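SEQUENCE-TO-STRUCTURE ENTRY
===========================
Question of interest: how does this chain fold, as expressed in backbone structure tokens?
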Amino acid sequence: MLGPTSHSYFSQRLRLHYVDWGNPEAPPMILIHGGRDHCRNWDWVAERFRDDYHIIAPDLRGHGDSQWMLGGSYNQIDYVYDIAQLLHQKKMTPVTIVGHSLGGSISLLYTALHPDNVVKLVSIEGMGPPPAMMEDRLNKPMAERLHIWMDDLRELSGRLVRRYNSLEEAYERMQTENPHLSEEQARHLTIHGSNQNEDGSFSWKFDNYVRSFPPTGVPIEETWAMFENITCPTLLVRGLESWASDPIADGRTKNFSCPLEVEAFENAGHWVHHDQLEGFVSRMKDFLSA
């Protein structure tokens, strides 16, 4: 695989990293990864679309080779601003957006805020936790939610970065996390998703503070309501072996007024674009060519 080139840009005084797959004369596409992931998890998808699109894939702040922020509040709206800044600086709108998990949520919110900037949108398990899972959190008084967040940050501050004695040990952890991965996929994701420490051990690249979800920012109910602002054709994807619920059955698709398609993949968990790569690529090609 002839890989992408590596670049940096600045957003809110952070140096953030992205990769560029070339073909600058083609229509732009951005691929946005999920939480505790990195931009090179898109390599197999990018390889299949690079001839038809100018593809970039960023590392979100606190992830991959992007800078970690000072403090502990990784807020979704800051991620959205970072993506807006990258697309603005690169002059890559109107754009096709593909996002996974946290990246899918970022993609949906960016598109709701900038509907004229997006040609088509693919969100893989980007709707967030099922409403039933969110209900308990949302019903807590704000003071209690703030206390929980403060306790979480205090606990994270004392959490040591996990060290693996070898790249092989980290690779085994990667395969345990997602048994659908082939050996090639697991090794590729481990190599690009880890750094070697000074003592020779290996650690994942992401900041442990990204595990915390601050109770501030745009309330989830208002985020869902903003989806009615999305105007471009949108494809929602999920895996039937994942924790994600059916957005049709749980009523969340009612927030969309745009042309909407929903696809569920068998034998796939949260990482549909890894677990069912060929099927996902085929479905995405059909959606983009329609």
About this structure: The first helix runs from residue 43 to 49. The two ends are 28 Å apart (CA to CA).
